[in-house]
Structure formats: C-alpha cells, structure tokens
Design goal:
By secondary structure, this protein is mainly alpha-helical. It has helices spanning 11-37, 41-74, 88-106, 109-140, 143-158, 160-168, 170-186, 196-213, 239-244, 249-253, 255-278, 285-301, 314-320, 325-339, 343-349, 357-372, 379-384, 387-404, 409-414, 424-431, 434-449, 453-468, 492-513; strands spanning 84-86, 308-310, 476-478, 481-483. Strands 1-2 form a two-stranded antiparallel sheet. It has a two-stranded antiparallel sheet with strand order 3-4.
C-alpha cells in the first residue's frame, strides 16, 4: 500500500490559486447582491456567506476523500482532487436575471433572496438528476448549443462590466489585469513560484493603498467608520422558506433561467470529469455529480442562493503538483472568513479591482472554448447563439442608462423616442428567455450545417411551443420594468413564424432524402 500524505508542498500552490478564485466569488456575492438585488448586509454576511461556506467545505472534503480512494485503488501517489466551488456563471445569472428583477418589481430584498434560495434548490435538484441522465442530455443537445449560450453570458455579464471597471480605474486595475492575463496565457513561472492570481491581488492591493495614502481619491475608499468586527455567524437552516415558495409565481416565472443554468452545471461538470480523466485521474460520474447536486441543495437549505460546481482546470492544478491537501485548505480558509465575518475585513483591505482580471480571463476562456471544443464547421452555430445574450446585456445597459437619467424604459418607448434609432421592441423580445433562444438558434444551426433537417425542425417546433406559452420572446412593459408574459398565445407571432420554419425544414428533410 502506497503512502499518500494529506498535504504536499505543491498543495500550497494549488491552494492559493483555488482560494483566490473562490475569494473573488465571495467578494462578488457581497458586492453585487446588495448593489443589484438590494440584499441587506445582515443577510449577506449572516446567511448567504455562511451557507455558501458550509457547502464549499463539505464538497472540498468529499472530493479530497474521493481522490485518496482513487489513489488507494490505483496504487498511485499523483492523484489530484477535483477543484470545487461556487459556479461563476450561475452567480451572475441568479443575481442579474432572477434576484435583481424580483427586487426591482417587488421592492422586497428579503423576498428576492428567498426566490434565489429556491432557484439554487432547483439547480441542485437538476444537478442531482443529472447524475443519472447527464450522458443522455449531452447526446440530445449539440455541444455548440450549450457552449455558445455560455459564451454569450461570459462575454457580456461576466466580462464586459468588469472590463469597463478595469479601464475606468486603470491606475489601480490595469497592472493586475495584465499579470493575470499574461500569466494564464503563457503559463510563465513567476518569481518565487507565486500563483498569478495571488501576485495580481498583492500588486493591486499595494497600488490601492499607495494611491490612498498619497491622497488620490476615486480609486480605493473603503468605509472604516464601523471598523472591523469579528462575529461568528453560523448558518441557520431556512428549509421552510425554500419549500414555502416552491409554487410561487416568481419562481416558475424564472424557470427559463433556472433550468438551462442547471443543465449547464451538469454538462460542465461532465466535461470537467472528462478533462480530469484526460489528465490521468478517472473519477466516477454518478458520485461526483451527486455530490455536486447535494452541495447546491445544502447551500439553499443553509441560506446561500448560489449553486456549487466542479471547476474547470483540474489539469492545471495537477500540473502544479497539487494533490488533495489544496482542496481541504481551500475549504477551511473559505469557511473561516465566512463564519467569522472577516469577509467584510477582506473587502476593506483588498480592492475588488485587484482581482476582477480573473473574471475577464474566465470570460475569455469560456468564449475561446466554445469555438475550440466544437467542430470547426460548427463555428457559425456558436456565433449564432451569441446574439440573444448580447441583446439581453444591451437592453440592461439601455435600461440602466435611462434610470440614471431619471426616466425609464416604459416612458421612453411610449414616447417613440427610440423610433428610427434602436428597434427596442426587437431587443426586448430577443432578450426574453434568451438562454433558451440561444440554445435553440445554435442547435438549429448545427443540424442545418450537418443537413439533419428533421432535427433542426424539431428544435424550431420547440421554439414555437415556447413562444406560444411565453417562455421566450413574450413580455409586458410597464413603468416598473420588463415583465414576463406567460399564458396561451403570449407570443403568437413568433410561434407562427417558428412553426413555418419547422415546416420548411421538414420539407428540406424529405427533399434531401430523395
């Protein structure tokens, strides 16, 4: 029997990389949950972060034990645990597309948080089911359809806003961004063997405090009026809140976001398992995905709105020499800062701009992957799937700009101010249920490229059904904002058009068979 230590020297390298990644997720949760969804600090630091911490540490321990079991079975001492943490894409999707809209419609941040809890719960259920049907899902949905949708979200909601933030404060953020991008692009070895993310955060923090002590305003101005308080915040079960809202209109209204994001988590985890196997570590699919899904369900029961997932990048951690200790260290570190309330201190010491380059890198990787990991001939389908996300992001920019100017989208559209400038109704229609629309357009394109017209026709027909019942394209515009419009005949015009497309594709199928 081989000796397989819990910790090796290289686990520290892996720990810094994974911990910085997780830390950025937590900083985003603490910042965006309040800014976008109005969630009060009491809930963020008292419920969301503690709940997230428990789900992360339990998952980290599970995947570490799983790796040790694999090492024992295979007699190897180079097995690396799967990286694990909060799903970045779901984080943005839930804040911007679920909790934010619910808050703006109801003006109730607590209710918005509870809807987020239910969304996280359903994501966990989908991930759990995916442990049994994940391979089937991959077979019926073209990879280009899944990756292009992911790429659309990555290039817009993950990367663009933070790219603007970086170039808004270049003295603070540009150098850390360059360190992160060039480190990960070239895999260069940095002085002292420091991970790129850690060095970027260190440099950004030094720059921030140098600017602050030099009297330069507008860059880093943390609020120290309350000082730093260390308070133990243990997670409090909120199972009753989750189950009380399962039948809520607001939950089912956003199933067009929850279901695709759950599927993304399943397929993404499967792809990451394949990536780990290619690197030499073959993990069982069912147990890995079950742990993933149960982690998300547990997070929702303990107050966190954000699903967990197996991270991309296992080969990278393995190449660093990390084994299982890096995963355990990460779980302990994240748990400590979340349960002790020191996450607030982190935000006051480390500027968010020092680490957002990592998010830009994640966006770049996802977009590049969507083209690299699909057949070359499917590049057109990938590109086709980007437009709905671009429409949703552009609409969000327009709406935010109008609100900042003291007006709103409803008033501006009603006045006809957009006429001849922006086809705003088309932008709104394309943005509604854009995740499904992106998948459908991309999948149709894949099967047309492959001349499997009957499959493309089925996807077009599914778009017709979704339009008819208001899952995609249907909306109601009021002074409160853009609302979903569900019901029979919600977007009849689109339903008729998609039906015509489906019939046309069936005709092409029969003609092509002759």
């Amino acid at each position: 029997m081989i000796y397989y230590p819990w910790f090796v020297r290289k686990d520290l390298d892996g720990f810094f990389g994974l911990a910085i990644d997780n830390l950025i997720q937590l900083m985003l949760i603490a910042t965006l949950s309040g800014r976008i969804a109005g969630i009060p600090e009491g809930i963020i630091f008292g419920s969301i972060l503690p709940g997230a911490a428990i789900s992360i540490v339990i998952g980290n321990i599970f995947y570490s034990v799983q790796a040790r079991q694999l090492a024992a079975r295979t007699g190897r001492d180079d097995v690396t645990a799967l990286p694990y943490g909060i799903n970045t894409v779901s984080l943005f999707a839930y804040i911007f597309f679920i909790m934010g809209p619910v808050y703006h419609e109801t003006n109730d941040p607590v209710f918005a948080w509870k809807v987020g809890l239910v969304a996280c719960f359903f994501s966990g259920v989908i991930e759990t089911i995916g442990a049994f049907v994940g391979d089937w899902l991959r077979r019926v949905t073209p990879r280009a359809a899944l990756l292009s949708t992911l790429a659309g979200i990555a290039v817009t909601f993950i990367s663009m806003e933070f790219t603007f933030q970086i170039f808004d404060k270049p003295a603070l953020a540009l150098i850390p961004m360059a360190i992160i991008l060039f480190y990960y692009m070239s895999h260069v070895k940095l002085p002292g063997g420091l991970p790129g993310g850690l060095l970027a955060v260190m440099v950004g923090t030094v720059i921030a405090w140098t600017l602050r002590f030099s009297g330069v305003s507008g860059y880093f101005e943390p609020d120290w009026s309350k000082g730093i308080a260390v308070n133990v915040n243990l997670p409090v079960p909120v199972i009753g809140d989750v189950f009380s809202l399962l039948g809520s209109e607001y939950v089912w209204r956003y199933m067009s976001i929850i279901i695709p994001m759950g599927l993304f988590n399943v397929v993404g985890s499967l792809q990451n398992l394949e990536s780990a196997e290619a690197a030499g570590d073959r993990y069982e699919t069912k147990s890995s995905l079950l742990a993933n899904g149960i982690g998300s369900i547990l997070a929702s029961f303990l107050g966190s709105c954000f699903p967990t997932t197996i991270y991309i990048g296992h080969p990278g951690w393995k190449a660093l020499g990390a084994r299982t200790g890096y995963s355990v260290l990460n779980g302990v570190f994240i748990t400590f800062i979340c349960l002790t309330g020191t996450m607030d201190a982190v935000l006051k010491i480390i500027p968010l701009e020092a680490g957002v380059g990592i998010l830009l890198w994640i966006g770049i990787i996802i977009v590049a992957q969507s083209f690299q990991e699909t057949p070359k001939s499917h590049a057109l389908a990938v590109a086709m799937g980007l437009f709905p996300a671009l429409a949703s992001w552009g609409l969000n920019m327009v709406d935010s700009g109008l609100r900042a100017a003291g007006t709103n989208l409803y008033t501006t559209v009603s006045s006809g101010a957009f006429k001849g400038i922006i086809p705003i109704n088309g932008m709104i229609a394309l943005s509604q249920g854009f995740i499904f629309t992106s998948m459908i357009l991309s999948a149709m394109s894949v099967y047309v490229i492959e001349r499997e017209y009957w499959k493309a026709s089925l996807w077009a027909f599914s778009a017709s059904i979704m339009s008819y019942f208001g899952i995609i394209h249907a909306y109601s515009l009021t002074s409160l904002g853009i609302g979903n419009k569900f019901g029979i005949g919600a977007a009849t015009e689109f339903a008729v058009c998609y039906t015509a497309v489906a019939i046309f594709l069936f005709i092409l199928h029969f003609k092509n068979c002759k």
